[in-house]
Amino acid sequence: MPITSTTTTLQVQLAAAVRRRRAAQASAASRALGIAAVEATAAQAAAAVAPSASIEACTAALTAEVLSLNDAALPGKVCRAALAARLQSSQASCLIALANNNTNDNNNNNTNSNNNKNNDNNNNTNNNNNSTSSDVVRPVVVGFVVSEAGRGAVDIVLLAVASGCRRRGVGRALLAAALAQASAAGSTSASLSVRSDNVQAVRLYESLSFRWVCSSRIKVKGGRWVKTKKGDEVRSGGSYGIEPVVRKAGDPLFAVLGLVIIPFLWSVPIALMTAEMCSAFPHVGGKIYCVHEGFGPCVGWLNGAFNAVSNVFDVAALPAMALGYAKMFWGAELEGIGDYFAYLLIILATLMNILGVELVGMSSYIFTIIVCSPFVVLFCLGCGRLPELREERFETQPMNNLKFISCLLWNMSGYDDAGATAAEIINPRHVYPRALSISVCLVSVMYLLPVLVGLTVLPDVDAWHDGSFVEIGGLIGGPFMAATIAILGIVSGFGQLNALMCSSVREIVCLAEMPCQPVPQFLGRLHPRFLTPHIGTMVFSSLLFCLVGTDFTDLVAASMFFDCFSFVLQFAAWIRYRLRTSSDDLDTSLDLGYRAPLGMTGVILLSALPICLCILAVFLTWQEKGTECKIGFFGTFAVSTLMYWLQPAASGALASSSSAPLLAGTH
User: Fold this and answer.
1) String of b and e for 142-163 (b: at least 16 CB within 10 Å)?
2) For the residues of 321-378, what is the DSSP string, one character each?
């Protein structure tokens, strides 16, 4: 991705300098050999760089030394073990202090040990006023990490620990140094980032492809450092939208069994996969970026294309759901103006998304509390009727396999969308597991209990449709309860529309910012005041207008059809990521974020469950909607493939299509 002077949303990646690496147990002799090699390389690199050298000179020296060490046929695990031992000690690996020509004394202090970092920062603060040059960074500690990411990948990490790294121009200096080194070696692609409030990290791979990493607390706008907004996404839309599942099941028993079993077969695997992958790759776009990292830009683009089409149908279903509840209560008054009501909801959600993620996050919390409360009251009022279910004789009808599976999976989905705002969430390794575990439990309970209570007063499954909880509320709690559920059904649809639009647009932004993707970069352009992708949000909203008036269940079936292809690729990326970072080989001294408590076999078995459900959903959709499915699938595949091959950077994409540094390790 070419680096421009326009506003750039920096990616989040906690512990970027020490990403998960495979590390087998090394013998004592091999560990000693590795430590000696690192010590020798540190001495050579330190001797090769003058105290007042520029970043470019230091980077060149370190690159040569690290590549020579990698060529020495030392096992990667030995080098990692040696590095881990050094990082745990009082000294850092291969420290070299940099300063400008006027601060040579500070450089001598920096080369002693990591214990002098505070002194370096103090010296740096004192010297910041002595020079206004932005081409040379004040005292900076430079270290490197040697690792084996599959096929001899080499990481070179530049750590700027001085307070001056927050000063205007410093990030550009590191950027220029990295790009200069890549250009000298013939690199064809580069993408850069910053890590932590005052730590800048650039990772250089043997193939000389760059990744730019940063803390969630930082964005850069024209050299100005600002705080980002926290978009913690823990939300539930209440029980709204689950009613068609009962009707399409044909038998209440199948509906209840589905609500009990599917969270374990579908929701839990998706939540675990999302929590691990998004804490490992906390990037704008979440699942889009993970597949891109796992399989390269070509497969990443196909995943993004199918996911984008799915998101359009998915988000469009939410105004339809809200409209269904509005018609249940104000049917006569809304006759003829229902579409305008849906347009209004889309416009309001668009405005809120442009105003900022913090507003979306706060509103999602409020909406969750509000829309869940009437179902808690409904269950409390009707729980005494539950024993009647044993004696109730239900009228059954044939199951609509497609819409039953589609509506059930659709209502139990959405956890993967939480990863789209990973770049704006502080401390994702702790936020995601907690948020997703709460969401899975809350959503499952909020669907099951009201359905059980509703079956006691509305046993005819044919009477269940979008908005039936309004009728159920009236039968149990009277007109006031019916009105409350109807109004909050609209609020629920709007709240989910608001949050899902936020995550969907972030995935488009992710595609626009990644290299070798045929998405116009202007879609990811940020608003100068609110720092939100306003252009991408408006373009996405315009697509929703075209689907207003479409049946709710048809939108859900279309959304799940395209989403299933994306889910298969996401779980495949998770499996590949685990293969590259096997827990059996993992160096436990490295801080690597959340990791699902499963071994390699557990990940494969857990992934097989939702993949089988995806295959079933696609088969049923293809069987019932053959013509529409063929047009949708082959049309999306053909158009996305054509866009990918016709993009100007297609030749560069082909050269690096197999390059997925953190997962594939193919260089």
Assistant:
1) bbbbbbbbbebbbbbbbbbbbb
2) HHHHHHHHHHTTTTTTTHHHHHHHHHHHHHHHHHH-HHHHHHHHHHHHHHHHHHHHHH
- What does the pLDDT read at residue 294? 84
CB 568 within 8 A of CB 614: yes
What residues does 226 pair with on adjacent strands? Answer: 219
- Kindly tell me if the per-residue pLDDT of 322 is higher than 80: yes
Nearest residue to 544 via CA among 357, 322, 289, 329: 322
Name the one residue in this structure whose structure tokens are 């930082």: 218
pLDDT at residue 470 is higher than 50: yes
Predicted confidence (pLDDT) per residue in 120-164, tens digit: 434 433 333 333 333 333 223 233 332 323 222 223 333 322 222
Q: Residue 337: how many CB atoms within 10 A of its CB?
A: 10
Kindly list the domain boundaries of the chain, sorted by start residue. Answer: 16-226, 243-656
For 141, the 3-state DSSP assignment is strand
The percent of residues in the chain predicted with pLDDT above 70, rounded, is 54
What Cα–Cα distance (Å) separates residue 135 from each residue in 97, 99, 197, 283, 396? 16, 11, 20, 29, 76
How far, CA to CA in Å, does 403 sit from each of 70, 165, 611, 618? 56, 55, 18, 12
Asked if residue 652 has pLDDT above 80, the reply is no
The predicted pLDDT at position 604 comes to 93
Nearest to 644 by CA among 634, 632, 663, 657: 657
Mean pLDDT of the 90-113 span? 32
Residue bearing tokens 């695990």: 77
581 Cβ contact list (under 8 Å, min separation 6): 20, 21, 22, 592
Secondary structure of residue 281 in the 3-state scheme: coil
Q: E strands along 90-130, which residues?
A: 96-98
Q: Considering only the C-alpha atoms of the chain, give the largest distance between any 2 of them, rounded to a whole number of Å.
A: 89
d(CA 324, CA 480): 18
Secondary structure (3-state) at 98: strand
- How many angstroms from the chain centroid is the CA of residue 355? 21
SS3 110: helix
Half-sphere exposure of 120 (CA within 13 A, CB side): 29
Rounded to whole angstroms, what are the CA distances from 413 to 264, 266, 349, 478, 622?
Answer: 12, 8, 21, 32, 21
Residue-wise DSSP of 568-592:
HHHHHHHHHHHHHT-TTTB-TTS--
| pLDDT over 50 (residue 453) | yes
- Count CB-CB contacts under 10 A for residue 479: 10
Amino acid making up residue 328: M
DSSP 156-225: EEEE--SGGGGSTTHHHHHHHHHHHHHHHTT--------BTTTB--EEE-TT--EEE-B-TT-EEETTEE
Fold of 243-656: Amino acid/polyamine transporter I (1.20.1740)
512 is written with which tokens? 């626009």
> What is the C-alpha to C-alpha distance for residues 638 and 42, in angstroms, rounded to an integer?
52
- The residues that bridge with 159 in the sheet, in sequence order, are 141
